[in-house]
Amino acid sequence: MSIPIIRSMTVVCTNDTVQDVSIDVWDRGANVRWRQVCGIDRTNAPTTIEVGVKRGREYYPFRAATPAAAARSVRLLGEFVCSGDFVPTARFYGATVGDTLELYVAGEVEAK
């Protein structure tokens, strides 16, 4: 039996160069099957949004795009499996300080 995960994280931008938004870390021994990772700037259109996973300080981007306007998302659709210490992350380049930055994820913890 798997445990579904649907999470979101919202932060206020404090760095106009680059800022990461991540969810919490799962158990390192758990395998997590991620089905969607989505980054969005609700206030303005940043230069680029990347979505991927982060482990410690290392970041692994899977998809990057320039949103056409504010409140347009960059999504990674499709399944990938990784251990729980890899956390889904949206990296925002060129967002404006004070912007509302959001990350949405959906997946499941696989049964052992």
Short structural description:
The protein is mostly beta strands and 112 residues long. It is built from no helices and eight strands. A hairpin with a 2-residue loop joins strand 4 (48-55) and strand 5.
Please characterize this protein's 3D structure:
The protein is an all-beta fold. The protein has a single domain, classed as Sandwich (Jelly Rolls), CATH 2.60.120.230. It starts with a strand and ends with a strand. The model has no long low-confidence stretch (mean pLDDT 94).
Order of helices and strands: EEEEEEEE
Main pleated-sheet profile: 4 strands, antiparallel
Mean pLDDT: 94
Helical amount: under 10%
Total of DSSP H or I helical runs spanning 4+ residues: 0
- Per CATH, the architecture is Sandwich
* CATH class assignment: Mainly Beta
Strand fraction band?
over 45%
Round the Cα radius of gyration to an integer and report it: 14 Å
